[in-house]
Amino acid sequence: MATRKTSAPTIMPIDDAALEEYATSDYNEKLYSLVYYTLRELQGLAAKKSVGDSFSWNELKARFTEVFGTVESRRYSLEQLLEYAQRKFGKSLEDLQEINERSWARRKAFNAQSNVQQVANSSTPATVDRP
Question: What is the DSSP-derived secondary structure letter of residue 71?
Fold first, then answer.
């Protein structure tokens, strides 16, 4: 019996240019950012433990950018970053996603606490000297 050759239907990509400012980035773009920034955080936390008081997040960010580039100008692929995360920190993509979620939760809590303190400080009535 002869085999029939079938070709997969060609799927035309959706042109979402008309969305303009309402457009969102592709999933892989978001995933790359997540992995990049989570790796930078893990690298920083590890360095902070080993370096101690002389640790500087700004210095780490500059050096990390020298090695890995930026999210916009990448030096490595997503696959390479994931391999690095596995080799250096024993972290899978799922682990990195969990770490990123916890980090965002900490930032939200910190920002909420800062906002409460700012409101409390601004609502403290000023004392007026009366004659």
Answer: S
